[in-house]
Amino acid sequence: MTLFPSRKNLYLIILLFSLISILSALYIEFILGYRPCKLCIYQRLPYLAAVFISFIGLYYVKNDNILIILIIIFTISALISGYHFGIENSFFEEFSGCTNNQLNLSDKAKLLESLSKNMPEDCKDATFKILGVSLAAINTLLSILIIIISIRTLSYEKN
To answer: pLDDT tens digits for 96-133?
Structure first.
C-alpha cells in the first residue's frame, strides 16, 4: 500500500482541485468583490489547462505524457505564483504592467477614462488572505505539492 494515489486518481484529484481553484477565484472576484491583479489572473491559466489535460488523462490517454504535461503546467503555476508571492513580500520589483502608478495626470481625458475603468489591484497588495496567508503563497505551496506527488506517482508506477 502506498500513500500516493494511482495515476487515474491523481488525474481526478487534479481535475477537481483545479475546478475548485478556478471557481473559488471567480467567487472571490465576483461575489465577494475583490479585484484581482494581473498576476492573479495569470495564475488561473495553468489551472484551466490542468482541467482539460487531466480530463484527457482521466478518460482517454494512458501514457506518461499527460502526467509530464501536468508537471510542466504546475511548474509554470509555481513560478508565476512564487513570483507573485515575491512581489507581495518585496523580494522582487513589480513589473510595469502590475502597478497602477502609470497614469499621466496631465492629460485629463486619460485620467477620467482610467477612473471610469475598474482598475486592477497592484500585484504587491494581497487584498484577500486566508488565515493571514495570501492566495499567491497558497498557490505556490499547492503547486509544488502537486508537482512532488505527480513526480512520485510517475516514478512509482514505472518501478
So the answer is: 667 665 555 566 666 555 555 555 578 888 889 999 99
Cα–Cα distance measured from residue 8 to residue 58, given in angstroms and rounded to the nearest whole number:
6
Distance CA 13, CA 19 (A): 10
Q: Does domain 7-94+120-158 have CATH number 1.20.1550.10?
A: yes
Question: Sign of the C-alpha dihedral, residues 151, 152, 157, 159?
Answer: positive
The mean of the pLDDT values for the chain is 86
DSSP assignment of 73-92, as one string?
A: HHHHHHHHHHHHHHHHTTSS
**Domain range list for the chain:** 7-94+120-158
Q: Cell numbers of 27, please?
A: 467567487
CA atoms within 13 A on the CB side of 56: 14
SS3 state of residue 113: helix
pTM of the model: 0.83
